[in-house]
Design goal:
mainly alpha, flat
Length: 74
């Protein structure tokens, strides 16, 4: 098998290129399964950025329930 003879550092590059080939083959064939309103790339970027800003704001506003709230014993 070809993958066994490739160095582990190069294996990541091979996988990345293989994924790029698969995406380039199948991407033109992808279609929406239902009717959707067309959106410009600019509007999409604004929605994504706004969602990220709101998510970061919520993470800072709401108290975390993970390790950070536990008191350390020392």
């Amino acid at each position: 098998m070809l993958i066994r003879f490739i160095a582990p550092a190069r294996l990541g590059q091979v996988k990345t290129r293989a994924r790029a080939v698969v995406v380039s083959v199948f991407l033109p064939r992808l279609r929406e399964t239902r009717l959707v309103r067309p959106i410009s790339p600019t509007a999409l970027a604004i929605r994504v950025i706004r969602a990220n800003i709101v998510a970061e704001w919520l993470f800072e506003l709401l108290p975390s329930r993970g390790r950070a709230t536990k008191k350390r014993e020392g």
